[in-house]
Structures are given as C-alpha cells and as structure tokens.
Amino acid sequence: GENVEQHPSTLSVQEGDSAVIKCTYSDSASNYFPWYKQELGKRPQLIIDIRSNVGEKKDQRIAVTLNKTAKHFSLHITETQPEDSAVYFCAASGDSNYQLIWGAGTKLIIKP
Amino acid sequence: ETGVTQSPTHLIKTRGQQVTLRCSSQSGHNTVSWYQQALGQGPQFIFQYYREEENGRGNFPPRFSGLQFPNYSSELNVNALELDDSALYLCASSQSGQRHNEQFFGPGTRLTVL
Which of A97, A100, A104 faces B103 most closely, judged by CB atoms? Predict the structure, then answer.
C-alpha cells in the first residue's frame, strides 16, 4: 500500500523567511496530493492541492511542486507570518483508492 | 451550504465499553471517510463509505465498524474499547465523481478511554 514520508518533523524559520516541507510517496498510482494545515485543537484545513498532471501550483504565498518521476512533492511558503505557525500534513491518494494516506506532519514555528 | 459536523465533541469511556460517533456530511457530498488521529500524529484512515456501502478500509480491526445513511450521514462504532483507542476521530466528506479526492473535515470527536 501507499506510504508517505514527511520531513522535517519540526521547522523553525524567522518571520519573513521561506519555509519548505518535503514529502515522498511510494505508490506510483497516486495522483492527488493535498496539503493540510492543522492548528492546535482544530480540524485539518486544506490549503492547497496538486494533481499528477500538473508540476506546480501556486496560491499567493503558498506553492506546491510535484516530481512524479522521483515521487516527491513539496510545500513552499514564502514571506512567512506568525499565523503560519501550525502543523502541516501532506497526503496522497489515487483514483482506484480514495483513501488519503498522510505524512506524520511538520510543526512549523515562525520566530518573530 | 453547511459544513461537516460531528457529535459528540468529547467523550470519556472505560475499557471494554462501546461507543458510537456521528458525522453529518457537507451538503452535496455523498462520501464520508473516517480517520483516527492520535496525539502528535497524522490521521490514520479507518474506512470510507460511499452510497451506504464501505468503499475501502485501512488497517483497523473489525471492532471498528460503520454505517452510512440515505442522507449520507455516517456513524463510526467501536466495540470493546482499548486504551489505545484514545484519539481524535475525524470524519471528512467529499463528492465522488467531482474532484472526488477533495475532503472536508469535521471538528472531530475527542475520545478518551480510561
């Protein structure tokens, strides 16, 4: 079955700097890769997603890149702000299996 | 359009008891997925229901079971509770066939097993 690995587990960046979180997946049939943000005690919120027919997608300060050959995808946050502090999860799923398989999460800390 | 709701918010049970958690899907969604999120970990897929039938199951024992009703709401039942079942249980709804992978989460039910 699918396995998703996520790195780093904790990331501390200065406010205004960029943050990058990386994930790898094992199942080449996976074709949908969402990123969720989860604040303490709250539900996961979808922040951006990418499908396997696209290599990059951007939404304001957030971008996701996908390398299908290498089976990895990354989240990029530019000009980080205090409200970006949260746990970020990557996930993967495919058409034949709608299960979302999640990474272990990255705790992003924005230092003032 | 209403979002995904779950009940109850919090629940305390003892070992060996049974529990039922409920989820109302977002308006227009026909698919509900259930996840278990232990403290400090990512959500683990339990199972998914589509049109009242189980449509995929993760690595959870049979004492985890579910239902989906004609209005697409869903229940998660856990029998013979164990201490390790203590977690946040999340349900997520989606619309199969239309960007079907996008899942929208409810606020979760925090289950504590003593």
Answer: A100
pLDDT tens-digit map of A5-63: 999 999 999 999 999 999 999 999 898 999 999 998 889 999 999 988 889 999 999 99
CB distance B27 to B93 below 8 Å:
no
The two tokens of residue A53 are: 């027919």
Half-sphere exposure at residue A82, Cβ-oriented, CA atoms within 13 angstroms: 1
For residues B83 and B102, give the distance between their C-alpha atoms in angstroms, rounded to a whole number. Answer: 32
Q: What is the pLDDT of residues A61-87, one digit of tens each?
A: 999 999 999 999 999 999 999 999 999
Give B-chain residues touching A32 at CB under 8 angstroms. Answer: 101
Contact A77, A85 (CB under 8 A): no
Q: Do B105 and A34 touch (CB under 8 A)?
A: no
Mutate to test the interface with B, among A47, A99, A107 (most CBs of B within 10 A): A99
Do residues A79 and A61 make contact, with C-beta atoms less than 8 angstroms apart?
yes
Q: Are the beta carbons of B45 and A100 separated by less than 8 Å?
A: yes
Quick count: other Cβ atoms within 10 Å of Cβ A15? 13
